[in-house]
Design a protein that fits this description.
- The complex is a heterotrimer of chains A (about 325), B (about 500) and C (about 150).
- Chain A has helices at about 5-10, 10-20, 45-60, 75-80, 100-105, 145-150, 170-180, 190-200, 210-220, 265-280, 280-290, 300-320; strands at about 35, 65-70, 90-95, 120-135, 160, 185, 205-210, 220-225, 250-260, 295-300.
- By secondary structure, chain A is of the alpha/beta class.
- In chain A, strands 1, 2, 3, 4, 5, 6, 7, 8, 9 and 10 form a ten-stranded mixed beta sheet that branches.
- Chain A is globular, with a radius of gyration of 21 Å.
- With about 500 residues, chain B is an all-alpha fold.
- Chain B has one domain (about 1-285, about 300-510).
- Chain B contains 22 helices and two strands.
- Chain B has helices spanning about 1-15, 20-35, 40-50, 60-85, 90-105, 105-140, 145-160, 165-180, 205-220, 235-240, 245-265, 275-285, 300-315, 315-320, 330-340, 350, 355-385, 390-410, 410-430, 435-460, 470-495, 500-510, and strands at about 185, 190-195.
- In chain B, helix 5 runs antiparallel to helix 6 (about 105-140).
- Chain C folds into two domains: about 5-65; about 75-135, no CATH class.
- Helix content of chain C is about 65%, strand content about 5%.
- In chain C, strands 1-2 form a two-stranded antiparallel sheet.
- The chains are: A alpha/beta (about 325), B mainly alpha (about 500), C mainly alpha (about 150).
- At the B-C interface, helix 2, helix 3, helix 8, helix 18 and helix 19 of B face helix 1, strand 2, helix 2, helix 3 and helix 4 of C.
Chain lengths: ~325, ~500, ~150
């Protein structure tokens, strides 16, 4: 990144801000801020966190370091952040799946490692609606055709996912319940393998984020039937939403920033202000656009309400799936 | 065909631009470095450098990151040969015969053969990629769970040819490896297996900490400095180079390794590492002197080193032609393209010919650069062995600790490495070979998952593996496995003295 | 009966297998056509124990356990203990302190080298690694609580 040139570019702003009261108390932040990335490098969080960090650095006037703590589908990083010192120097970037871990642990009677209450939501940056796609060798042109056929032959069609209780499994479970259909579940080791499975026609249905499957949709290898947003998505304007089709399901792959519980309010306020400025930066917007997405920024109060709603859907879906028999 | 050459010409006009060349060189250099450092492999190297590419355009970024990937396959052999520490997971097999060669004073030759083999394999891979990427990619998509299961079954059969120890000891180690591979969350049911509430164990134990511990640390623990004779004399240039006989012995393994590695490489999934294991087993199976394996067989270096390089090139085929990642490394490369606004996918060739062909052409150049970079370094690397051992091994331990730690910033990984060091020490004392354990660990999660996925697809019917209309590849692979098994049964019924018997005999003589 | 190396090794693997069975009691086994979480571990532990029995049955030809050369044991124990101590403190004290102490300890305690040379070597080495990772690989090493 040409951080350096960017810093130079905003030199005027920096110079203006440099004339701070010299007697000021220790103003947060006084040392580098660490973002915990709970997914592998280059993953869903990393690709947003890095451009965000580079626009936040001149705003916070401190380096922003991204530390990867990948493992257990994001649980390791979240647990690490939950137990970090609540001083604003360790923040967590996480996606919608943060809401499900406690519910899954409860399901298996395991000690719950952290709950939603261990985190303070700060801002939401992305909310990519999910889209239901079928392999182009399948005859379905509309969701209705697909649902009707699936009803006729329960447990014959196969849907792939990134893993049990994962981001691609949960919305599918909600749809199956709402439409009263049953399909076989083919869990794989991640979003990439789930996509590979449907491209090879080893599964017929996949609920994926729009960004992850857009290239394949454009090439005609996958056919989108319905989208899980409240409104139609700009990337696939011809695809109806679940709501239009009569299913009250909404599901997004969103990404937000969290602080550990107990982080002082002034620090949270500083971060909210900084994030607000960062999302307005054309550099960040372009970076997100490159990913095939749009910035869907929410400030703390709205994000908190959104998260509560989203978490309820996730928890419902986990309970709906229940423990897998076997 | 002519169109291909036109496109390639376009590619070279991009790849040979000075700035693009520079980034290709940087990538190759860093790749060689991360390949050499124990623990840090291509995945960590690419991830670490990914943010640096944000300011570059898509072509330069992908050229540099890909350079790290295939460059690390060159570098990985260095520490394996010199120090018996796998620089990255695909170099595990090189440790065995490469290090044995080094102990015989042929370290330079082993390094040269590894570099030349990597070069030939890499270039072969790029040529195939240039000419027939789309049909080859279509083949890759035919690899669903049943094909995977069949491939790994074949891998397990090949286990028998992997070790110098007796068959039952080899199988015992493999079973232990497969057992260790089941640690972590079971993706099919969500149960945690043997993870003792340690979140880090949820993903299972990594191959790198285990391999570094078993091979590298275990060896260091069993080698106190007073047992090391400090008479490594400065090798003369002629001794650095392989002899005519060594070149001759490595020609066919390089050829076989290139083809085998490429084929395994294009298959989506994370089976890449097994390309070097498979190549080693194949070489041993076809060799006229299988008893030399483990004691410095040239083919045991040439085959696996070529295979892992060809596999890394093969992995680009589905990524470029279809936009699907074949493994974690290609997933990061795809993310890099995405970040630069070049969505990888079936339309990449048409939408961004500059990026696509520039990238392909840069791989020709990159492989040449790596050869030019690695051959002169052979002399330098061999001199590493002249550092007094008492000073050398603390250095190695330090790099092992930080290398393993840096990958995931996980202290649990470092503990796994230490424990595996002690285990490796113990196994050595009791005459067990750790290589099958590592292969078992690699195969276990993929094998179990693809088997269970296949059964989900077929509703529990095992006939899915034998359906020659729908799944000819799976059937073919399983038939090959069956024939191999049958052959070994027949030979043992006929009580022919195979190489194992010869080996046992040789050992008995040695002991007396 | 003389205890042989393979008796000990086989016994250890059988003990490990028993432990696996004891620990995986709550994992469902499933059926052959629908294997569940417990099948693979139990199968592999079972196989491992079976092979261990075969190894033990052929133990007669292996060397006596007392004949195994343990002359390197003090070296091994010291190295592993010193490294383990370094790992315990790695995240708290950071790379520079822990790793230079590790190299120093290995050189002085295990190898009985001149402390002065050991100091110089360990500090030079860690500084080089620190530079390598932070500059060449752009991946700063663990800093610990003291921020260096």
């Amino acid at each position: 990144m040409d951080r350096r040139s960017f810093v130079a570019g905003s030199a005027a702003a920096a110079a203006a801000l440099a004339i701070r009261p010299s007697l000021a108390q220790e103003v947060y932040p006084t040392r580098p801020v660490t973002f915990i990335n709970p997914f592998p490098p280059g993953g869903a969080v990393d690709v947003v966190a890095r451009p965000l960090a580079s626009v936040l650095e001149p705003i916070l006037k401190q380096p922003v370091v991204i530390e990867t703590k990948a493992g257990a589908a994001g649980q390791v990083g979240a647990q690490f952040a939950a137990s970090a010192k609540p001083d604003g120097y360790t923040l967590l970037m996480h996606i919608m799946s943060i809401s499900g871990f406690a519910e899954v642990d409860k399901l298996f009677g395991r000690p719950v490692k952290f709950t939603r209450d261990d985190f303070i939501p700060i801002s939401r940056f992305i909310a990519d609606p999910m889209v239901l796609v079928v392999n182009d060798k399948q005859p379905y042109k509309t969701l209705k055709e697909f649902v009707d056929d699936a009803k006729k032959r329960p447990n014959e069609l196969i849907f792939s996912s990134s893993g049990l209780y994962g981001a691609l499994h949960l919305p599918t479970a909600l749809l199956m319940k709402a439409a009263g259909i049953q399909m076989k579940h083919l869990p794989t080791a991640g979003g990439g393998p789930a996509l590979t499975a449907i491209l090879g026609n080893n599964s017929q249905v996949l609920v994926s984020s729009i960004a992850a499957s857009s290239a394949q949709m454009k090439a005609g290898k996958l056919r989108p039937l319905a989208c899980f947003g409240a409104q139609r998505a700009p990337a696939v304007p011809d695809v109806p939403t679940m709501k239009e089709l009569g299913y009250n399901i909404e599901f997004y792959l969103w990404l937000g920033m969290f602080a550990p519980k107990g982080t002082p309010v002034p620090i949270i306020t500083t971060l909210r202000e900084a994030n607000k400025k960062a999302v307005a930066d054309p550099k960040f917007q372009q970076a997100v656009k490159n990913l095939g997405q749009d910035v869907a920024y929410l400030d703390q109060p709205e994000f908190r309400a959104f998260w509560d709603l989203s978490a309820k859907r996730v928890e419902d879906a986990v309970r709906l799936i229940g423990k897998v028999q076997g | 065909m002519e169109a291909t050459f036109d496109s390639l010409f376009l590619g070279f006009s991009v790849a040979l631009r000075f700035d693009v060349l520079w980034y290709a060189f940087l990538g190759c250099l860093v790749g060689t470095l991360v390949g050499m450092l124990p623990g840090i492999g291509p995945l960590a190297g690419i991830s670490i450098l990914l943010p640096l590419t944000f300011g570059l355009d898509a072509t330069k970024a992908i050229v540099m990151l890909a350079g790290i990937y295939y460059g690390s396959q060159y570098g990985g052999s260095t520490t394996s040969i010199l120090l018996r520490i796998p620089g990255e997971a695909a170099s595990v097999m090189t440790c065995i015969d490469g290090n044995a060669m080094a102990k015989k004073g042929r370290a330079g030759a082993a390094l040269c053969i590894a570099a030349v083999g990597s070069f030939i394999a890499g270039t072969f891979g790029v040529i195939v990629l240039t000419l027939i990427a789309p049909p080859v990619a279509a083949f890759a998509l035919r690899f669903g769970p049943p094909e995977y299961t069949a491939l790994l079954t074949l891998g397990l059969i090949f286990l028998a040819y992997m070790s110098t120890t007796s068959l039952v000891r080899t199988l015992l180690m493999a079973a232990l490896g497969l057992l260790l591979g089941t640690i972590g969350i079971d993706v099919m049911t969500g149960h945690f297996r043997f993870s003792f509430n340690i979140a880090e164990l949820g993903d299972g134990i990594g191959i790198v900490p285990v391999a570094v511990g078993l091979f590298g640390l275990g060896e260091l623990l069993a080698t106190p400095s007073h047992q090391v004779k400090g008479d490594v004399t400065r090798p003369r240039l002629r001794e650095l180079l392989p002899t005519r006989k060594e070149w001759h012995e490595s020609a066919m393994p390089i050829a076989r390794g290139s083809v085998l590695g490429f084929v395994v490489g294009i298959i989506p999934g994370s089976a890449h590492i097994i390309s070097s294991f498979l190549s080693y087993a194949v070489e041993r199976r076809v060799s006229k002197h299988p008893e030399e394996f483990g004691k410095g067989a040239v083919a045991g270096v040439a085959g696996p080193e070529s295979a892992n390089n060809a596999a890394s090139t093969g992995a680009f085929v589905p990524m470029l032609a279809l936009g699907i990642p074949t493994g974690p490394v290609t997933a990061v490369l795809m993310a890099a393209l995405l970040i630069h606004g070049v969505p990888p996918g079936p339309t990449l060739v048409n939408d961004h010919p500059n990026v696509f062909w520039g990238f392909v052409a840069s791989m020709y150049v990159g492989n040449l650069m790596l050869l030019a970079l690695n051959l002169p370094l052979v002399g330098l690397f061999v001199n590493l062995l002249r550092i007094p051992y008492a000073y050398l091994y603390p250095l190695i331990i330090m790099f092992c600790v930080i290398g393993v730690y840096e990958v995931n910033h996980s202290i649990v990984d470092v503990w796994i490495m230490l424990i595996m060091g002690v285990v490796g020490y113990g196994l050595k004392k009791f005459g067990f070979d750790p290589a099958p354990l590592v292969l078992g660990l690699v195969i276990a999660p993929i094998f179990e998952m693809s088997l269970r996925q296949s059964l989900i697809m077929s509703g529990g019917n095992y006939m899915i593996f034998l359906d020659y209309q729908q799944r000819p590849i799976a059937l073919g692979l399983l038939a090959t496995s069956a024939i191999l098994l049958l052959l070994s049964v027949i030979s043992s019924i006929l009580r022919q003295r195979d190489w194992r018997a010869k080996l046992a005999q040789a050992e008995a003589v040695e002991r007396q | 009966m003389m205890i042989r190396a393979d008796h000990v090794a086989g016994g250890a693997f059988i003990a490990l297998g028993v432990a696996v069975f004891a620990l995986s009691g709550d994992l469902p086994f499933g059926t052959i056509s629908a294997p569940s979480a417990g099948m693979m571990p139990k199968l592999m532990a079972g196989l491992m124990m079976a092979f261990a029995v075969i190894v033990m049955s052929g133990a007669r030809s292996s060397q006596a356990v007392t004949e195994i050369d343990w002359s390197d044991r003090w070296h091994a124990i010291l190295v592993i203990v010193i490294t383990a101590i370094a790992v315990v403190f790695y995240q708290t004290l950071g790379f520079l302190i822990t790793m230079s102490l590790l190299v120093f300890a290995l050189l002085v305690v295990v190898e009985r080298r001149n402390p002065l040379r050991a100091t110089a070597y360990s500090i030079a080495l860690t500084l080089f690694a620190y530079w390598l990772f932070s500059k060449a690989l752009k991946s700063p090493l663990e800093r610990g609580l003291l921020w260096f």
